[in-house]
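My hope is that you will study the protein record below before we discuss the fold together.
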Amino acid sequence: MHTCKSISMTQNILRGLVRVSACALILFGNLAMVAPMHAQEAAPAGEAAAAPPHQHTMLDTFKEGGWVMYPIAICSVALVWLTVDLWMRTTVKKMAPMSHVGQVQDLFRAGDYVGAYQFCKNNNSPFCDVSRVALSFAGDGEEAVEKALFVELNKVNSTLQTRINYLSVIGVCTPMIGLTGTVSGMKGAFATLGSQGAGDVSALSGAIGEVLIATAAGLVIAVPAFLFFYFLRNRLQGSVSGLQDIVSALFRKMPYQHLKDAHVGEEEFYAAIPNWVAGGGDHATAVSAA
């Protein structure tokens, strides 16, 4: 329940940001259209009104950047998607939903460890995954449970950290993609300068524009990618630490002496008594590889 509220609240915030951004873009566009009109009205009455200049749109800027703008655009979409997804995943409430924690705590209070295992198996959250694995080792003693907790927490951390690392990849790659566009644009600029000289200003400025736009676009994506990478990495560390505290408190004072050799989970055990012990065969013959 709390997880649904958190997701709904995050979605409402994102919708609000989109609406504010759209309003700002509309306002900026209206101001851009009104400014030339005022300039024409301010012209002297006896002079003919000049033709309105071509407005430089975002699409024009994108086209001027050259072919490298397409992979940079893909990186920008991946940046937004990863940031929103990881922002929602790396909260303590998402990792350990209060409804899951409360239900498992009630089952532990009642001593129903099999029921707690079944509940964790049927519900998907990092808290349930860690608790389920730890419960499956309850019959092997406290040391085995603590080791299982540590391994499963590392698995949760590494899974999310791998996704966060993609932000670092985007932050490293986008400037390199922009630099590729810079080299391509400089090559075109020198080719134009060598074939037509400095007289054809429009062709030369177009090539130089490709150089600047490609470099700037790569940096515009790389800077927030690195910012979100470090922020989400630290956020993940705090959330995993909170998850560890919750699970450790759950297994504190566990009656291991009453659970000795108990099989709480449903995992199949493959290790059995050696066949030479069960059948009474010769030890040397049983373990021989030949």
About this structure: The chain is about 75% helix and 0% strand. Residues 65-266 form one domain. Residues 142-196 form the longest helix (55 residues).
